[in-house]
Design brief:
Helix content is about 40%, strand content about 20%. With about 350 residues, the protein is α+β, with helices and mostly antiparallel strands. It folds into two domains: about 80 residues, no CATH class; about 220 residues, Bira Bifunctional Protein, Domain 2 (BirA Bifunctional Protein, domain 2), CATH 3.30.930. The strands form two sheets. A seven-stranded mixed sheet has the order 1-5-6-10-9-8-7, sandwiched between helices. The protein has a three-stranded antiparallel sheet with strand order 2-4-3. Strand 8 and strand 9 form a beta hairpin. The protein is elongated. The relative contact order is 0.10.
Length: about 350
Amino acid sequence: MSLQNFLSALDSLKSEAISTLDSVKDADAFEAARVKYVGQKKGALRDIQKQMGSVAAEDRKSAGMRLNEVKQAIEAAVNDAQNRLGGGGGSDSDPTFDPTLPGVRPNIGHVHPITQTISHLTEIMGRMGFEAAEGPEVEDPWHNFVALNIPEDHPARDPLDNFYLATAQTGDERRNEEGSRLLRSQTSTVQIRVMENRQPPIRVISLGRVYRPDDPDATHFPMFHQMEGLLVDTHVTMANLKTVLRVFATNYLGGDVEIRFRPSFFPFTEPSVEVDFLWDGQWIEFGGAGMVDPNVFRAVGYDPEEVSGFAFGLGVERLCMRRHGIKDIRDLYSGDMRFLSQF
């Protein structure tokens, strides 16, 4: 094709396309014209562009420059027609759409109250120098029981009180002595893992899920969260433990909170206490604590004559319920947006 013929075809296409696009009256006519002239598959502009190959090599620069000018002019006509028709672009455009009206605000999700509580607890304990540590939720008997000084005949190791998992043997008999793994029943397991890999001083907390086959009721659930705290150093006393828990309770539950410490027993602490807060005229347990038992120190290679420490485990759900006035733990896991959207 000669250059003159190619340029003539471009001028004819430009004139026809602009005239047609300027005269369209509705969205259907606009869409038909758009496809005819600038369609990606069979558009006239695309067809004439393919003819560039038949133009002499020495004329292609001039032909290409003119092609771009025509293309820009037709695309401008397409945009003008679309704007003139109020958006154009297809037969399913809504002629009643008014862009000046305020939009409908979408529903935006937010952080679950338990996650909010975990973040708040981490921040409070961080101000007291405790760093966060994590551990696996699927544990072995060594970390969940043996290293925590829980003997084989202790009720806490009963298969009916734990979620045991049938898994292949790993070859580490010490840590698979009961022939299975289990979902951890307490975050105290993280204490052991931290002490196995670090030397004192240690000041850590661990927040995470734990599992016990409890029947769901207003204050119990088979899956819940604990905050485990551990402080190991020299000359640590029960007074340090009580101070940390009182400061924590005041910061999270408010300055008017009443808490008490009751003597108790846990295999991994000695002496041991249970910690309660007063709620609606009743004392509610929200955790256990005590001085780390010497046998626990020996299990991780510490000398109990040289170091001492305390540990505590607090129920995250009960703290959350107390702070927000929630009466039933099951509401936290109901998935009911009417409830969750309040937080």
